[in-house]
Amino acid sequence: MTYSELDSLFHPRSIAVVGASPDPYNMSFMDVIVEHGFPGNVYPVNHRGGEVLGHKVYPSVKDIPGPVDYAFLQVPAKATIEVIRDCGVKGVKLAAFFTAGFGESEIKGGSELEQELLRVARQGGVRLLGPNCMGFYCPAAQLSFAYNLPQESGPVGALCQSGGHSGQLVRAGAQRGIRFSKVISYGNAADLNEAELLEYFTEDPETKIIIIYIEGVREGVRFFQALRTATRAKPVIVFKGGRQEAGVQAALSHTGSLAGSAEVWDSLLKQAGAIQAYTIDDCVDIALAFRFMNPPRSRRTAVIGGGGGATVQAADECSSAGLILPPLPNEIKDELKKFLPVAGNIFKNPVDMSGVHSFQTIAQSIKLVGDWSEVDLLITHIGVEIGPDAMMKRNLLEPIADVFIRATKEVGKPAALVAYAFYTAPACLGILKVQQMCCEAGLPFYPSIQRAASAIDKLIRYHHAR
Amino acid sequence: MTYSELDSLFHPRSIAVVGASPDPYNMSFMDVIVEHGFPGNVYPVNHRGGEVLGHKVYPSVKDIPGPVDYAFLQVPAKATIEVIRDCGVKGVKLAAFFTAGFGESEIKGGSELEQELLRVARQGGVRLLGPNCMGFYCPAAQLSFAYNLPQESGPVGALCQSGGHSGQLVRAGAQRGIRFSKVISYGNAADLNEAELLEYFTEDPETKIIIIYIEGVREGVRFFQALRTATRAKPVIVFKGGRQEAGVQAALSHTGSLAGSAEVWDSLLKQAGAIQAYTIDDCVDIALAFRFMNPPRSRRTAVIGGGGGATVQAADECSSAGLILPPLPNEIKDELKKFLPVAGNIFKNPVDMSGVHSFQTIAQSIKLVGDWSEVDLLITHIGVEIGPDAMMKRNLLEPIADVFIRATKEVGKPAALVAYAFYTAPACLGILKVQQMCCEAGLPFYPSIQRAASAIDKLIRYHHAR
């Protein structure tokens, strides 16, 4: 299939939800599709008939009056063959399966059923996504696979072998300013697989950054070739599930994947120029650096924030991630001492400005340190940990965050802001608010220096390798 | 000083807050002490006179009418000598200094001032805490060093060279069911230092678990001897600040500490039998395992929860931390299949029970897997990540968590519960609620499998070494 043929699969004009149920406790994609505001026709299909969310239910795909581009199946595995045969007759282009119980499961004949399904689909000219997946999320098509996901598109594309991780990725990204071109949950990869999807994302002009969660390969050689091509064009972040023996076993039962050895994967991913991640948060951390930071000219970094222990820790964590913290020159020290009290602050790099009570002084300090010509990166951090409740009580967190964000942005260098302490509910909500303010300002937000430094390290490595 | 002499320092009957200010934007310990409900007399001292929070201000410590056990100083460094001289005259036993600007700072003569302070204090029979610290938190004495900390005592004692980290430790611990005997912020350690304080905590019958945040040693040989003695009596968790060169430099400016090389510290801590941690959250994670889990008889662990990708990740993370996940025997598989649908679930270890919609089935599955005679540990996890909003919308998270907690507790083996997704505000508040429910049930709560497994690994290592 060409790029545009594949692309049209992810922009359907009408959808059949086969197995749609009015039971709200049954994972209902009707509900999700309607909530997200899909503009085309949505046809629930169920032999029981009736209505779902005000839409007339048709007994089979064949009975639907208008054309159907995309069918989403949530019916038992054994019923899928007939549905796919109907889809072929109806001219459905793509069918995605929430349905599990195929090659991944312990059900006898599951693998054979998956093979048969593929045969019937090919006969009818229907492409398959899954089985055992969540379908796809494509904001441009106003189509979602989970509740309450952003309506706006963005430059991150993801192919994700786990449905749960797909949802988690969009949700985690959404809160941190990441928007997606498409997120494709592809489960068992019986037909559309990791290789073809990666080739699609590589060609896709809407996608500037690719994230992959993968358990095993269906077409190993093609995938690694595609990966090498992809990494030359855009950053590709890969989270490999099934690294340890127990994980390999779990992957086999999750998506029927032969997960392979971690050592082999590590080496192949490295050769292909991919960026490895180990959790979904890790994927978002790295994507955030690529999305909102220009390539830093060097590893030379200035760090400024509040808290003595936090400053020591910031220094340790930046250094461990390979960032370089050049010593603060006397000119800047002397300037800082004009408005920062000497007692209780640290005039090194990182700078500790704990003993500060004026917004103006915070802004001045950040700008002075950030503008320093010897550094090409700036990390600022808010020491909420010293007393989140005190800060919250006095409504100081938001104004302080505002000063930090403005000053950090004004410096104009690649930069990140860190704020921590997810302990009490008010502190937690306060941090989420700071995160939102950062999103709005286009400044990457991290909940720890360690996570910021690690993501920035990966950004630098990627650009350095090119 | 004997144990009981030291202990009496942390149970003062009356307090002088020297430099107390009515300015709410000035870090005011008066406010903290009064908020926490200290039952003894509290005397603000300030040459400006007047009142602070309804308490009459005295011009000097000498002018206070009653006896004073403890003086907390928040005055400029240069004023401290006179205050300590007055404290000696008044019979104050312990003086703690929020005041900075001594050996740690770039102020000329700071180190000499610290020496002079110590000389004057010794002359007057006053013990010093700090300077450049937060004092101490002792719930039994109804004395706090920060707002809104728990009133109840508990079995964890901490000595913490950073004031910020001290507060963060109590706050993070409080939310997760950890209560403290005392948390002593000791800053520059001019007088009371890491060695003497560790000896105190080792003898302290109220303290069953010790946490140390340390940047450098004042009495190295004595400290490592004390550490070896301490680890024989109780678990000692050590977070060493100032590991990398930039961190060593920051530590020197933070508490005047010579932080030393990370390799030397790692080896000395290992020899002494201490448990290393790398963040405050890490300290709490480990303390939580010691606090709420009996020593597991082996590393053989059962894991059960929801989410396919989460299950693969759980397997990888448990294995990476050295936990053993024995394969699930056919008897248990067959039992599970009686009530868990085969499609969409994983009948291995970890067990994935994603395709479950009944509370009873969740409880049955957890108990069946937890009671399995081949495992000595149980980790259950709630796959909130699949759709936190959906779960929140339907108010399902709390009832599901309740079922998980009850079933996990009923198994009776060392166990932990994991729930993740701190993304949206409702999900975040939901997770905090689950955490609170776990606290009430005495079940250790972790926000990721990786953190749970890593803490449990350290618990097992400690008991194994004995």
The Cα radius of gyration of chain A reads 25 Å
CATH topology of the largest domain in chain A: Rossmann fold
Q: What distance separates the N and C termini of chain A?
A: 30 Å
| CATH architecture heading of the largest domain in chain A | 3-Layer(aba) Sandwich
How large a portion of the residues of chain A is in β-strands, by DSSP E? 15-25%
Number of separate helices of chain A: 17
Supply the helix-strand structural class of chain A.
alpha/beta
Largest interface (CB < 8 Å): A-B, 90 and 90 residues
Question: Which terms summarize this structure?
Answer:
Rossmann fold; 466 residues; alpha/beta; homodimer; 16% strand; six-stranded mixed sheet
